[in-house]
Design a protein that fits this description.
Length: 287
């Protein structure tokens, strides 16, 4: 089951946490009620989701056979950036136009996918290293604002929210790319934005205060993960595991619980994905 209410409540102009508004760089974000702490919009979303999950659990528990053979996993797909406060909206042509100005070609960028990250595909992949170094250099400029706009005919005068830029071997080492060499599917350049910076088509008409997808930020990657159910050993119920884990480990854990071999999955074999620690769930499969 996929619940979107909390995600929407975190991003809404009158939602989020500690939303006292940001009229300078997010003109339509005028604040929430209350302006400090969780907004009423987010609280309502959490309560709705909690009640919905409760209905599912009640239905499971009403069937003893189902209850003792069901593992419940509650997890978020992602966090929102920023988790607290209101994001700064930037026009989404800033980075593509800067690249095309630098390369002297108004068609140098074949695709740019952007929200609180910028993923760039270049028409000429021999320019990847050049573009990477150029974008890193823009970090030295003063930060752009919501009224800043890109240009393919003049040099950038501000930093479009760039925190770091990855490509090639570094992108591969960080797990962003399947190979250090470019291909036709993977972005050529990955731009990590500063916390709380979001690209939109028109900042003056922005309809959100946060977004997901940011690279390597705590707000985007620290998420809730709860495992429960009558099938779980009493030895682990009520315990907390503080280890760093990945959502990909959920699939391995679920397959183990079903008695299936997770190593039949290509991704598990390639990445060496392990089951979640501390669950005491062991597969009874016959490999």
């Amino acid at each position: 089951m996929n619940f979107q209410a909390v995600s929407v409540g975190e991003k809404a102009l009158n939602g989020g946490i500690n939303n006292s508004g940001n009229p300078t760089n997010n003109p339509n974000a005028t604040g929430a009620t209350p302006p400090k702490g969780p907004s009423s919009v987010l609280v309502d979303a959490v309560q709705h989701t909690d009640e919905s999950i409760g209905k599912i659990l009640s239905a499971i528990r009403s069937n003893p056979h189902l209850a003792k053979n069901t593992l419940v996993v509650l997890v978020a797909k992602h966090g929102q950036d920023p988790r607290n406060g209101v994001g700064n909206l930037l026009k989404d042509n800033l980075i593509p136009d800067a690249i095309e100005f630098h390369l002297g070609n108004p068609n140098a960028v074949s695709q740019a996918t952007q929200d609180d990250v910028s993923l760039v595909w270049l028409k000429d992949q021999s320019k990847i290293s050049d573009v990477t170094l150029y974008l890193r250099g823009l970090k030295n400029l003063p930060l752009c604002t919501g009224t800043s706009s890109g240009s393919t005919t003049s040099a950038p005068t501000c930093n479009p929210g760039i925190a770091e830029v990855y490509s090639g071997a570094l992108a591969y080492q960080l797990g962003l790319a399947p190979s250090p060499n470019p291909d036709n599917r993977t972005p050529d350049v990955f731009v990590r934005t500063l916390p709380g910076y979001i690209f939109v088509g028109n900042p003056s008409k922005g309809k959100k205060i946060a977004e997901h997808g940011a690279l390597f930020t705590e707000d985007a990657t620290n998420i809730a993960l709860v495992i429960g159910g009558d099938s779980l050993s009493f030895h682990v119920k009520g315990t907390t595991v503080n280890d760093k884990v990945h959502t990909t480990q959920i699939a391995v854990t679920v397959l183990n619980a079903l008695g299936l071999n997770p190593n039949l999955l290509t991704g598990v074999r390639i990445e060496g994905t392990k089951a979640l620690p501390g669950t005491r769930i062991k597969s009874n499969r016959d490999d």
